[in-house]
Fold these 2 entries.
Entry 1:
Amino acid sequence: MTDGGSRHTRTGPGSGPGAGRSGRGSRRDQQHFGPPGLVGTGEKAKNFKTSFKRLMDRFRPERWLLVFVLVLAVVSVTAQVAAPQVLKRATNDIFAGAMSRQINARVEALGMSAGSWSKEEMVAQLEAAGETDLANMLAGMSLRPGQGIDFAAVGRVLIVVLAIYVLSALFAWLQAYLMAGIVQRTVYRLRREVDLKVARLPLKFFDDHARGDILSRLTNDVDNIQQTMQQVLTQIITAFLTLVGVLAMMFWISWELALISLVVLPVSSVLAMVIAKRSQKQFTLQWERTGNLNGHVEEMFTGHNIIKIFGHQKEAIEVFEGHNEGLYQASFKAQFISGIIMPVMMFVSNLNYVAVCVLGGLRVAQGTMTLGDVQAFIQYVQQFGQPIAQVASVANVLQSAVASAERVFEMLDEQEQSPEPEAAPALKEVTGHLVLRDVSFRYLPDTPLIEGLNLEVQPGQTVAIVGPTGAGKTTLVNLLMRFYEIDSGEITVDGVNTKGMDRDDLRRLFGMVLQDAWLFSGTIRDNIAYGREGATEEQMRAAAEAAHVDHFVRTLSQGYDTIIEEDSSNISQGERQLITIARAFLADPQILILDEATSSVDTRTEVLIQRAMARLLKGRTSFVIAHRLSTIRDADVILVMDHGSIVEQGTHHDLLCRRGFYWELYNSQFAEALQEAC
Amino acid sequence: MKRLLVKYLKPYWKLILPGVILILLQAIAALYLPTLNAKIINNGVAKGDTHYIAVIGGYMLLVAALQTVCAVSSAYLGARAAMGFGRDVRGALFRKVESFSQNEVNHFGAPSLITRSTNDVQQVQMMATLGLTMLIFAPMMGIGGIIMALRQDVRLSWTLGVVVPLIGLMLGLVIKTAVPLFRSMQKKIDRINQVMRETLSGVRVIRAFARSDYEERRFEEANRDLTDVGLKVMRLFAVMFPSLFLIMNLATAGIMWFGAHRIDSGGMQIGNLMAFIMYVMQVLISVLMATMMASFIPRASASAARIQEVLEVEPSIGDPERTDAPAVGEGVKRGRLEFRDVEFRYPGAEAAILSKISFTALPGQTTAIVGSTGSGKSTLISLIPRLYDVTSGSIELDGCDIRQMERAELWKHIGFVPQKAFLFSGTVASNLRYGDPEATDEELWHALSVAQAKDFVVEMPEGLNEPISQGGTNVSGGQRQRLAIARALVKNADVYVFDDSFSALDFKTDSLLRAALKREVADATMLVVAQRVSTIMHADQIVVLDEGTICGVGTHQELLETCDTYKEIVYSQLSAEEAA
């Protein structure tokens, strides 16, 4: 039952937008549809022991509470395990009462006159008559011949049992309640730590790693850890204690019967593990194939048009059928094997049950055991099965959680960017005088990129960066903003070396408008206000007007409160671009970095963007990744880039006269256009 | 959900029927065990008859074995049927979607279709799995348990009337609280994932504006929300399980008490009391199971409805019954494409997005289509491969109405490069061979060199066999576009359609590509949609669209003089001196 409930909480990334983009995402998805119960994803941690220890270390702040929870669990389980032992006295009393009532008739049927014999007399008489078994059984009972059930005694026992049950429930509840807090707080801390880590990682990390992979670690893996810890910690402690307690009680009642159960224990654990292992294999296969199939479906549906126009439907369906059949085979087997676990465990438990019934029955008949003992024993046998299954399956679940934890720890171990200098000079107002002196930089140690670059930009000047696609025009941006650190040389702003500054302080001097218009999901107001902390409504409006945002926002029914969706179907690409410009206006930086759009924006918006950018540039030192001839020609300095490095530098006129790379580039890009236009 | 289940489970009745019978047997066996135990106590233990105990013990073993065999076989049959069901639904759905035209795909949206064929099918399949096992087993056990309990003692059975509703009520309460909690939890998880996604995608902007603290607050808020809901969910379960056990245990104690009175008055035997207790437990457990399972039904049935919706849609574009094929005389260039007074409106739309479109694109010529966003350029182009069908007028390829052609035949003539260059997972070569599976490596290289893609493919370590990831995310946008162009070129079509396919290319590559196309694909009809004036100003014919109608056809020079819309577009991109 526990599994049925907890499966609800297995909420994968599947239902979110953009679900299943990463392979691992869709596999994890599967988890809450697939296996009934505790089966992991079949992923293995590289270094289980270390990662497991680190994961457990996360619970260190909660250790005293954990100890307390453990105590609660011990009490609860002890009460639960003790209850059948108490209850058996009621059974015995009832049995004795029932026997007492019929015993006279039984004795008379044997040809004796029972009269008003006491228990001892009756036992002696029966023995004399050769009815040894019956005599023995009666000897072990609190027999009151002819009197019936002692309800006062039964009532007392039942009240004690009730009290024990209530106590056990109360403690079980308290324990689970506290455990919920422990798990949630620990995962909460882990999440926060991961988030803070993201803020401290150098940009290189994000450029080097696939976003899907990082995201999957931050979301799917952390989710997986939470789900598993929730299940494992709440169930396993109780399961383990119950196992121990039940076994102890069994031995107390009858060591012979307990030995039988003890044989059952390893048999069923081994059986459970063997089956779990087999189903594990199938589930892994099922996950893989689900991933493949989902990937194929996603691809075919996304490329629906292409598939059609290129006449590939038949192939698409054929491949799909292959995947589908493969998935069917794997999932049928996985389902079947996991479906076997319960019946097989049940069978073993039933064997145990029958053995206890038969042997216990025989012993009661012989008088070496009471009926209450047998009943209690049967209850223990029934309590035995569930925890065995839980303990046996925990290994699998832990594997997957530890594998997830390992991936998260890997991220936490990533090298962080160099710490901010203490007592950094704070530049509040700058003129925007920028000097790059002897700057060298390479992304890869053995591939030189920028060597000994010298550049001086006077306040208010515009630097155009040009070059063919993929020439590495963003490299310079990376260095100016200290997204990457230069290898040697220095960059100064108003004479202050940027290396000695706090990164945030430095970046506040810059404004940036990139081609990919990044906005977060939130209102338009919040997105513009992002440019400056604590901006007033008036300032925000002014920036919006300057960037031609105000006009189209007024046409929206929600105005500035319009929520921008992630996939942003409600505002166009061009409008997004304008909002990012408004954001930069509000930031009002002295130095600007602009990326002229090449992407398809409709012509009217394009005009607005151009005007807004031009207005933004006015009076500021700016670096423009330029695509427009007019921008390039009007620039004070042009940096020509190719294959990652700066190949030429100068004004438009200088560079044309030089008849080098720029000249060639200029001719191919614009001359044709100019000639044809003329 | 019923219709879907009935239709797709029907083929499996040969598995299901014996499965149900086996489950019934399994339930009977499970229910019989306590009765046998009662017999042991009443007739064996109470009478001291050890032989009887051993015999009945043997029966019990047999029954237990039977139960296991039935359970395992029914699990086998159930798994076969349920997974087969899932496979069939998935297959039907996929084939259905493959038959859809763009209309139907748009109606649902590709992401939704993906979820429906993956997650939704899984939900329904899971429902079928549960349905074929536990959902049948639980009521059988429940009803059987009640019957068996009644057989033990009728007068004690009022206790059932108290305990069963009690546990039902409790479960109902739990589910009622839990369902909205789970929904809210899912929302919080989505939210935190969204914040994370944004933090990653905007990492440059966030740092540029030095707003890491703001992001931190956003995340912190989402994290706290999620933790709170998670705590509520766990605490609900913290109450639920102990309470359930408590109810069961209290029931046991209560039945002992009242049963003792029945025994004392000679109404029942002690063995029957113990059996009664066991049956009550079995009934309670099956109620528990049934309720848990039942809580899956709404979710699965929502999924089933979503699947059914797709399966019920008939594709709006199909092949005509009598087909026609363009007949072109010897020596005449193929690929003459004529739009005749074409009108198109999206289904359900009030106004036509295109109307009165008439022009002819000739082989060996380039026809460019320009216009501002929303003027209908992409729609116009998608009419050519019949992604949509015209709502009036006609489009003719070499004199033959394209609606009269078999679609496979039509597509053979068209090389299409979509706005979003979409590549498939595989290799460079496998993507290029989408155009022509038989193409030789030389042909591929030729197409690549025309598409200006040869240089970077040569530089790839594996060359033509370089792996391409799904969607082509491992190559840059510009490379993706050029590969998509090469893919179309491999096809050797009569008509090439480029839907804003040069946008990610820099000017230099753009112009080299156009020159190569002019040289290498001289005989074909070219249709080019573009935003960039420099891309289209050299075209033989430019069609200017404004709000769905043609406002000018001609060459660059002609249009500069006659068409204001065109002038506006040109001047927005080139300064007056550049254009003039």
Note: Chain B touches chain A through 178 residues (CB under 8 Å).
Entry 2:
Amino acid sequence: MDMKVNRRPSLPIQNQFSEQDQALITIIQSGLPITATPYADVGKALGMDESEVLSRLQRLNDSNVIKRLGVVVRHHELGYRSNGMIVWNIPDDAVAELGACMGQFDFVTLCYRRPRRLPEWPYNLFTMIHGQDRDDVLKNVQFLIQSCNMGEIDHEVLFSTRRFKQRGAIYRKTKTNKAVS
Amino acid sequence: MHRTNTITELNPQQQQLTELEQHLLNDFQHGLPLVPRPYQKIAEQLGTTEEVVVDTLNKLKQQGFVSRVGAVFRANSIGASTLAAMAVPENELEEVAAMISDYNEVNHNYRREHNFNLWFVVTASDEQALNSVLDDMEHRSGHAVMYLPMLEDYHIDLGFDLEFKADSELDSNQAKV
């Protein structure tokens, strides 16, 4: 089998964080406690005082490591039952411009450039749109095509038909207590 | 105060929500105050008490409307993550999907209408750990995993507009249930 041939190029360079930042990120990635004093409560678990938690979060927020801090809703449970992943095959020299155009609309929940995997996968830009039903999603796709002048761009809409799993990302194993070197 | 909204544009799930719940769900998806008592501040904006805000958010979480209150991290700014896809024959899909969901490193796993019919997100502490999970998936399932890491993010994430009508469009005396 030739599954491994050149399929895994390096990821973008990651930020480096202090051990304290990493510990804080690890503990809050599944959510802050919903209490009157969430930052103090997180701090207690880490042996950090509240003001340190706040200043570290402020810094992560200002440096854009945190895209947003707040309520994360479940679309499906709120009636947004339809979820379309639209994949576009955009010429490389136009992808930044069209990505920025699509990424500005609030009905778009993700807008990422990803690598093509030729020959089976020619698409290099992915947008996610949640809607109350398929028509709702397709209307927004048409709106994007018109707004960003993408009539000539080859695309497909991949509707999800079943959700097997959904939860927040966990980047580090939290069950083991091994020292981080 | 806790009346049921009956605006017809709202879908059935949204119609169950009180006005306070709608505000909490829609207006605080970004900018959770970085102050010692964030819900006190939110309560002041909404004309209620900190205790009501905390209780309501906990209830919305229990009901499954809220997944969490917390941070959305920029992809690959911490750890390593990728979107991945597999083309799985129909008669194996159930089994392979369950196997993929079972990984602690997988947080989203969806069936989609395409020859590539299983789409999931894998996150790990670093690239090496990520690769070993993907290798393991291929080995155990017998199917290739198409690996599609994010290269650039064009989205300005302020959360998702739930399209609740603005207060001015509501008749505040219309307390139909």
Note: Confidence is low (pLDDT under 50) at residues 1-7, 173-181 of chain A.
